[in-house]
Amino acid sequence: MRLKLLLLSLLLISCNTIDPNSKHGCLDSQACNYDSEATIDNNSCYYTIACDSICGGTAELDECGVCGGSVTDIANCDNVYGECPDGMILGCNGTCDSSPSVVDECGICGGSGILDGACDCAGNVKDACGICGGDESTCTGSSLIINYYNTSVPIGGFQFMVEGVIVDGVSGGAAEDAGFMVSTGNNTVIGFSLSGSTVPVGEGILVVLDVTGSGDACIVEESLIISDAAAGALPADIENCNTIQIP
Questions:
Q1: Which is more confident, 201 or 70?
Q2: What angle do CA 201, 204, 207 make, to 5 degrees?
Q3: Which of 44, 52, 143, 213 is packed most tightly, with the most Cβ within 10 A?
Q4: What is the pLDDT of residue 127?
Q5: How buried is residue 122: exposed, middle or buried, by Cβ count under 10 Å (0-12/13-18/19+)?
Q6: Which of 227, 118, 218, 122 is nearest to 180 (CA)?
Q7: 110 φψ region: left (φ > 0), alpha (ψ -120 to 50), beta (else)
Q8: Nearest C-alpha neighbor of 217 from the set 240, 245, 236, 185
Q9: What residue ranges do the domains of the chain occupy?
Q10: Bridge partners, 188 (sequence order)
Q11: Average pLDDT of the segment spanning 75-96
């Protein structure tokens, strides 16, 4: 009997200490579900803000940067939304990319264009007459092509190739005046001195080429070799197709 009275007393005391105006909820004002009327924290606070700015929402950005979107492949952004995400451009293949596919000079989307050394999209090359895809049968007649020079140091020897024509012979110019031995073969022109003589500093006609064909007869810069009197290499480049410049 005494135990029952004790329990009843404790229950009455507990009931009397509970604030009838108390409310359970989230007390953190930074939380999405902050309750300004709550007086007792019930550990229910959450802080996630979705891409649609809804606190506690579940929406996420898809691959195109669209909140709540459903695209999983970024290449399909334009097909679904009609535009590419920032930093991307619609390519000729219909997909968005930071480096979009483009139509090359041969009209191929994503193609590599005319190949190095070729003169057209079919992969043809110019013949010795300067005709793309030609067989040299169109070369008619012969003509003289002058190769010039402009040098700040004496020239002890030279070698270069000529493209666009067939070189049949070489003679004349400052090379002949200096007593150089000059020759040509496979469109390569060579000149040097056995006695050590040189083409002097200055400018003028280096050699005259006898050629067949109607091409530009330009010197191939990658083939150019110029040496001094001691057979040392000299820096040189080509200007206006047929002038050798030696600084």
A1: 201
A2: 105
A3: 213
A4: 67
A5: exposed
A6: 227
A7: left
A8: 240
A9: 52-113, 142-246
A10: 161, 185
A11: 71
* Phi-psi category of residue 135: left, alpha or beta, with phi > 0 → left and psi -120 to 50 → alpha: alpha
Cβ contact 134:127 at 8 Å: yes
Residue type for 164, please? G
Question: Can you give the pLDDT at residue 82?
Answer: 63
pTM attached to this predicted model: 0.47
Contacts of 73-81 spanning 24+ positions with Cβ under 8 A: none
- Of 159, 152, 198, 154, the closest CA to residue 179 belongs to 198
Residue 18 has pLDDT above 60, yes or no: no
Tell me what the mean pLDDT of segment 26-46 comes to: 84
Q: Are 42 and 26 in contact (CB under 8 A)?
A: yes
Q: Is the pLDDT of residue 211 over 80?
A: yes
- The encoded tokens of residue 218 equal 């330009």
Instruction: Single out the residue of 230, 223, 226, 218 nearest to residue 247, CA to CA.
Output: 226
